[in-house]
Each structure stands twice: as C-alpha cells, then as structure tokens.
Amino acid sequence: MLPKFSVLHANISTGCPADFVDAILRLGAARVSAYVCFTNVHMLVEAERNPEFGQILNAAAVAVPDGSPVAAAVRWCGGPAQERVAGMDLLPALLREAAEREQSVYFYGTTPEVLRAMVARARREVPELRIAGVHAPPFRPLTAAEDAAEVAAINAADPDLLFVALGCPRQETWMAAHQGRIGACMLGVGQAFPVYAGLEPRLPVWARRLWLEWAYRLWQEPRRLGRRYLSTNARFVYLMARRSLENLAGQLPALA
C-alpha cells in the first residue's frame, strides 16, 4: 500500500497519480471491503475539529491528497514533495484502467440525471467498461430496511469498485459504516460525478495551479459554501502556521 505521512490530524497517502490508480485497482481486485478518501482542506479541518471523523479518515486504505494545499502540506509537515491527485482527474483514469483489468464499477449517489450522463460518457469513451449498476439514493437518512436493501442490491451487482458521491462528510461516514458490509473498494469522489457527467465545468489548468478551484466553487454556490470556506480555510492557515512555529521552536535548542 502507498506510504502515508501525517498532516495535522490526518495520515495522507503519497505517490504519483499512476501509483494511486494501481493501488486502488489492487484493492478492487482483492475484493477488499475498504474505502478511499479524497482529502481536501475541509476534511483536514473537520478531522481536527471532530476526532470521530479523524478516525474515519485515518482508517481509509488510501487518503488521496485531492486539494493542492493538502499536497503542499505533506511537504511542509516533513514528507516528500507531493503533487495534487484530484478525484476529478483520477475518476476517468480509474475507469479506463478498470476496463483494462476487466473490473466492474458501480456509481452510487447524486441524481438520476447525473448518473445517466455519466453512464453515457463512460459507454462512449470506455465502451468495454463493465458498469455493474447505478443508484441515486434519496436526499434524506435511509431507514434500516432501506439501507439493508441498498447494500443487498450493491452486493448482488458484485462490483469491484463502488464510486460514492454523497458529499463530505456524509460519503466518508457512509463508507466507514459500510466497511465489512459491502464487498467492494469504495471511493468517496463527491463533486467528480457532475464534472465527469459534463454538467459542471472545470477551471482551466492554469487556474487550478493557482489553487483557485475553491474560489470558483464559492462563486457557483456562495450561500452553501461561503461560511464553510471562510471558516475552514482560515482554520487551515492557522493550524499550518502553528505547526510551523512548533517545528521552529523544536529546532531552536539544536541550533543553539
């Protein structure tokens, strides 16, 4: 499995995009009931605020450095130089490689419209990909009976990879709660679904390199994301600054 390095209260996996694709497909081939988190700043801050969520994140088989600040923080916290590995980029790569390795996939979450568009693109671009099933659950907590029925349906479809898009932190909590119950490698890819479906555009590469995706999403959904981004981004900067000062203080005796 990929090596991990501690960033604040989370252990982040490291490697190049091809390493992540291979590690995830290996989990799928082994039919391990495991899950993969695509870690951004919001999740790092949530892990610091909520120890229970921190445990969920650290129990992931793979914690992908999805956000550019998260990738940079790996190096700031003493790990290797790490590039961002975005879920929006890894999803199509995983589908292509799954087809190559004859693994099947299941799409769970978002809306029927998004799922139809995803399936249409996948069948157009990766016609040999085996899509075991799709399902858009209701936007409310499921009853125990409903949840059991959905688990049974997923397991009957028997996918190797289960892509989950329920939003953070709901999808991470859902995957952790279903580890051991669903016989597939689960991946919490969130916003990658509508982007892959072609229903939401992505920023140009130059803007992503300047870490501006958060600003673009804020422009799209100011009421929903405004308070979250203000609090989490400020908290992340504070936590990283405090970590840097603690590291500097620890080095002072040695320098003296």
Automatic annotation (TrEMBL):
The gene is wecB. InterPro entries: WecG_TagA_CpsF. Keywords: Glycosyltransferase, Transferase. One of its GO terms (molecular function) is transferase activity. The keyword Transmembrane helix does not apply. This is Glycosyl transferase. NCBIfam families: wecG_tagA_cpsF. The keyword Flavoprotein does not apply. It holds the Pfam family Glyco_tran_WecG.
